[in-house]
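User: Could you check the structure of this?
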Amino acid sequence: MQSLIDYLSSSIGKKQLVALSGLLLCGFLAALLAGNLLLLKGMDAFNHYAELLTENPLLPVAEVALAALFLLHIALGLFVSWRNYNARPSAYEPGGSAGGRTPGSATMKYTGLFTLFFLIVLVWTFRFGEDEGPGGLFGLVMEWFQNGMYAGFYVLAMTFLGLHLSHGFQSAFQTLGVNHPRYTPLIKAAGIFFALVCSLGLGVLPLWSHFIGG
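Assistant: Sure, the predicted structure tokens are below.
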């Protein structure tokens, strides 16, 4: 137990927790993308998906666990960033990659904080905000995406998310010790691909809803 406490208290332990929690959140994003793309199939498919989620008795547990994971990732990420600012760059934070700074690495904490703000707005809007009308969650989502400012905010948030993922995905593997001349370029390419799929896949939904679906 003491060795675990020592590890979690160490600098490398905190960096690896940031990396591991980030990869777990990538898994959540993949599931979120798969579910939200059902919006393109229409009201019945999307509302059925929403009903399956809300009727699951484990949903409250999953929501608490997900919120804790987000908070852990953000809090430790900001702490590591602060430590790096006062010491030296890490493998996961801006300036830490061997290839030098990129737009994604240079803006990690800013895109992360904006994503947190976006998530708070999103949860408040669709989880604790207005009640669903006769169209269910599909109708509520479509109604909000008819608002040009909200749709634009959503697209901007997905752009920042893609920027965050473009560095965070591959850097998390590097922090966890997966760093090899043969595999690192593949991981970097996979990270860029994942960032593009998530940001474009989620970002197209408000545009489709606003200009076509509505």
